[in-house]
Write a structure and sequence with these properties.
- Strands 2-3-1-4-5 form a 5-stranded parallel beta sheet, sandwiched between helices.
- Helix content is 49%, strand content 7%.
- The longest helix is centred in the C-terminal third of the chain and has 21 residues, at 240-260.
- It contains 12 helices and 5 strands.
- With 268 residues, the chain is α/β, with parallel strands linked by helices.
């Protein structure tokens, strides 16, 4: 209960803004903020909500001046979120920091730019491609590809498969430098998941800091596996109808042979 005091304020009023890019421990941070009493908006929530949310997010690359108002009211406040992490919310961290001047900003980071770039190339960097072709395009919300494109354009990185490891590293460094340059030091916490609870609790004025281990949600392997499976299915996708027909033919032949080989009744 004491830890939940960190989430004081009007329900739906953003108190914590995550400015760190995806694959910087944002899932662990979201879990930590939840333990501290917040309702945290993460990319997973965006995917689950689908186009109900993406219809507002796609307005940003269109230059709609009301986009921030729509996301704030129809996505965040309407669902009573009090914190944000990960994509796509991190892309509008500065707009959110202006709209919610009392909110604190957390820049989650990896050990090195290269570590982030390698993780991205194995996981979320492949999501946009997967979502634009079978079978994943039937799984992801229809607006996901547009949001994914907005993501990479905003951080200044070329989308895979054209994006390079060096290009991703440079984009990561530029983004972090931008956050540090635009958010006052007393309002910003640079946090690596390895730092654990202490700096986070101190920054958020949580007196009763949790004694349980800091969340470690390593979903990288799961994401990489999902992308590998999606690639494998896509490569065999054109053959699936043929495989299905072949399966039916084999099944019919088995049935016919079974019937033909069935024991004949003896005649008197």
């Amino acid at each position: 209960a004491a830890a939940a005091a960190a989430a004081t304020g009007v329900s739906g009023e953003i108190k914590v803004i995550g400015a760190g890019l995806g694959r910087t421990g944002t899932t662990s941070l979201a879990s930590a903020l939840t333990i501290l009493g917040h309702k945290t908006y993460h990319m997973k929530d965006n995917i689950q909500a689908g186009d109900a949310h993406n219809q507002h997010w796609v307005k940003f690359p269109m230059g709609d001046p009301k986009a921030i108002d729509n996301v704030a009211t129809e996505v965040l406040q309407a669902n009573k979120y009090t914190a944000t992490t990960d994509f796509p919310a991190c892309l509008i961290y500065f707009k959110l920091s202006t709209r919610y001047p009392d909110a604190k900003v957390i820049l989650s980071v990896r050990d090195t730019p290269k570590a982030w770039a390698k993780s991205v190339r194995k996981t979320i960097g492949r999501a946009g491609i997967a979502a634009s072709r079978p079978p994943m395009k039937y799984v992801f919300p229809t607006g996901f590809v547009a949001v994914d494109r907005y993501l990479w354009e905003t951080i200044g990185a070329e989308r895979l498969p054209n994006g390079t490891l060096v290009g991703l590293e440079e984009a990561y460094t530029r983004w972090n430098d931008q956050v540090k340059a635009t958010i006052p030091h007393d309002r910003l916490l640079i946090h690596n998941a390895k730092d654990g609870w202490e700096p986070l609790c101190k920054f958020l004025d949580v007196e009763d800091c949790p004694t349980t281990p800091y969340p470690h949600s390593n979903d990288g392997k799961v994401l990489a596996t999902v992308m590998d499976v999606a690639d494998a299915v896509y490569m065999t996708w054109p053959l699936l109808p043929c495989m299905a027909v072949a399966g039916v033919i084999v099944a019919i032949r088995v049935c016919v042979r079974t019937c033909c080989n069935s024991p004949k009744k003896k005649t008197a």
